[in-house]
Protein 1
Amino acid sequence: MTSTLSTYLQISNSMAKWQKITTAEPITKAQTEYYQKNIGNIKTPKELVNNYRLFSYVMNAFGLSDMMYAKGLIQKVLEQGTDDPKALAYKLNKPNILALAKTFDFAAWGDAATGTKEVKTDVVNKFIQQTMEDDQGRQNPGVQLALYFERNAPNIKTAYNILADKKLLTVVQTALGISQYMSYANIDTQAKMISSAVNIKDFQNPKKLQSFLQKFSTLYDVSNGGATSQSANVPNAMISGSGLPGVTSFSSSLLAGMQNLKLGGY
């Protein structure tokens, strides 16, 4: 079985190649051609949410496929726009929805909103990337998580950004050995725990980011019973409680193996 680490590195180091492969897939190609041909004809939020093929493409592009049922909600978000800090796009506290509202800015551009570069080009790029990550996720969720974190790392400015995104939080919890039960703690307590365990600014440094994701990938396989990279030389180990509420620590044999990874401080 191929390890999460080796698969993640293979894709991350050849991203353009994998995006090209995904773009050429028959289903993806057909979906994109339909979107490019028809999105310019959409003049209102209502028209967008009522066109299933276009709405599905857009929602998938922004990682919101699990909210396809919320047509009324998304329509209101797009109608209100993002100029008012009290707009629904902000109240929902969901970064992907806010990004969607800023891209399809009907409130500011009216019926010309679907003619912008962001709508014509950037949404397509997002869809291809999201589709590629989803394809990987069906084979190994750990690879999908690592790729997602890498893509969104530039937007992580505080621990609260991580706490607001379940996928980002899962990566951090796994890499730092923090139990998922931490999520039951006060939000400020969670933020302090993350901030004390990792320097958020390191996620803006490509080398440190990849070191962090290498550690995540290896520990993901350990905690999920998957394969680990032979070069990592991480032994199978029991995960033991640390005695601290909300924190999971790893056995000494695992920690010794992790030291061999030489992950730049992680």
Protein 2
Amino acid sequence: MNQRELALEILYKTILEESYSNLLMRKELNKIEPQQRAFVTNLVNGVLRKYDFLQYQFTEESNRSTSLRVKLILCMALYERFMLHEKDYVVNNEYVELGKNKYEKSFINAILHKIKTLKEADEEYIRCCLPEWIYKLLSSQYSEEELEKIIEVYQQIPQICYRINRKKCSYDDLKDKDITIVNEDIFRSSQNLLGSEEYAKGYFYIQDLNSASLYKHLDLKEDDLLLDVCSAPGSKLFNCLDIVKEENAYANDLHENRVELIKKMAQKLGYEKINYLNCDGRKLKDIVDIKFDKILLDAPCSGLGVIGRKPDLKFHISPESLDELEKIQYELLAVCSKMLKKNGIILYATCTLNRKENGRLVSRFICENESYIIEDEDTIINGEGDCFYYAKIRKVN
């Protein structure tokens, strides 16, 4: 199997079978040579990111009988030609060969020869490469300027950021890795460090720049009792352990395999005394008879803030799923807030931009629970990392 065939297979499963492209790539990339894997990753994510716009280029020529596979071949070819700037004859030859039969090969060849330039989209949501319902949702909740910034973030290719583990090293230990220090916690590198000896030893871990800043809003102290309600993969909890004693930290997740992932990473980073829980966060109060100083609730959400990093999310969420998530989020906040000590803080956070899952939900909670106040809240859309919302909520009575 060559690299373009593999990319086509991953895209097909992602869209038709609603699989997650990152999990597919993790599983499938070992079928090709290591030097080809970056190309496949770029091609898959690029087509997913631009899918609506690329498909628009041949809408008039295609019809109901045009299979998803053929449409994906054309999208891949157009992406490689116009976004990766591959030579026309290379693109035509490679992608015509992906047709299953003489008719498909002829159709693909004809379309690719016909399209000389990319045409501007008539509809704004197509130009922005979003499903119409997502575009309408965001445009109803954000100003034109904010929406433009969101679309810009969606279209960026995210940079890999690493979060230093001060338990094991300092920036001086990483001088030979060609690092660029972003701030006291985060650095980038021109090298891929995932195969490095330092990564294997737990000197650092991958974390988005904006995600890595959330722990600062908890006002942590060394002796705080800390609960991370939906902890996997654990990076935000590990941020907190720069300050909080690890034996005072409780990591919970609904899924047992995800708790094991946290444990595995914690051991690599050098944390041996974290307390682990494995239950539905909405039932934690019945299981854990502890009052906490600080609670981190990074709630399950629609993920509309991380479409730039995970473009396949566009194919996995629906308007109906947002309502289901909102119900779960509110129940989590209502239950976990009861586990706070007086004057304690619960940090409610999501990686979505849907205000119904964010500010409106928190406002409703405050209206219905007079013992709590919002001390700070913000939606982070800065172009430097994923988009996040957080609300710092204090229990005053």
Protein 3
Amino acid sequence: MWHKIRETLSSPYPFEPSLLPPLLYGLGSGLFVFLFFTVFEPWGFSLLPAAPRRALFAGYGLVTFLAISLNGLLLPRLLPRLFREDSWNLGRQILWMGWVTLTIGLGCYLLSGALCRLYGIPVHWVRLRTIVVDTFLIAIFPITLINLANSARLLRRSARIVAEASRRLGRPGGPPPEGTAGAERLRITAENGKDFLDIILADLLYIQAEENYVRVHVRGENPPPPLLRSSLTRIERQLRSCHPPLFRCHRAWIINTARIARVDGNAQGLRLTLNDAAGVIPVSRRYVHEFRRVIRGF
């Protein structure tokens, strides 16, 4: 049993430290907290005078928004190694949400004491254990269940896509055979308009972004071609006429779909193995829908 629990908690879980999700999640959660307390007035809040009661409810919503937003925006940037998605798992996600809950409880505790003193209300009911510890103990169970359910949902989705891709990869002639493109040549040009690479489409494995440069990986070429100074988005626009054989699957990769040998997946998303290429290439969640459309054309 403990082995199964450890295995479940160590299973991969998605984490993407972008700016918008913490703000939206914090805003939605803060609004929910404010409306919940305003409508239901639980735990005897209805006995308080109207002015401090409204101030508390608005303050709880604001504390929730700030705790979620600031934790989500600051900590992944202050501790980037801890929040790397390739090492993020379900256990860390549950602990992370538990930490956010603790900071919300602590903020509400401090706010409650300050407002009680401001309005001259006795502060004997403002207890650290009641507001912080009990809130955490109550919240950790739905947090765990919600994340377990979300992990299972993401796993099922990835499994469906992997099964569909495997069937289509196994078809005679699919993915598009290497000979489909024949000797069609591509020219990839750097930002300066002078540096470029001429390659055969059928030999292209993938194009990878490396900070302000891109590296083009070609079958059988060792060492790999030199770096070109360009953004991957600019290269993607250059190669738009070659879509879907060339498909951007991630902010850092454009792949040749004719080279796909295998598709794997977990709750974090999909991973691609290419013929004649070492390692695996991720498919970002934002590109999953387009990837499904591409493989259906195999």
Protein 4
Amino acid sequence: MPRELDERDIAILKKLAPECGDLTCSGSGHLFHSILPPVSNHFSGDGADFARRIGLLNTEELEYLCRVIEDGTESMGCLPVEDIEAFVALVHDRVSPEAAQKVTRAYESGYECER
């Protein structure tokens, strides 16, 4: 379920990808509707770069991303498996093992958690 990025979303996106000039996907020409996919697919050079970037997030930002993943508004559909694994590991270590399990279930169930 796509969303319009609000100020909080944009601030997180810009923190993870300060080089993000506008909020438009260069491939499709459409506005970004999520945070993690553009960081992974447009701005990170590789999996290690993605892991470094998401490591910049504070606990509150990670918790927020977990909530929007859980409610189905943050897409994980086009993230490489290594980037999902890096995100889940970070959530496990900095938020909780339970939150990491919810993110994993969301990814495995088609990118939305059971409600």
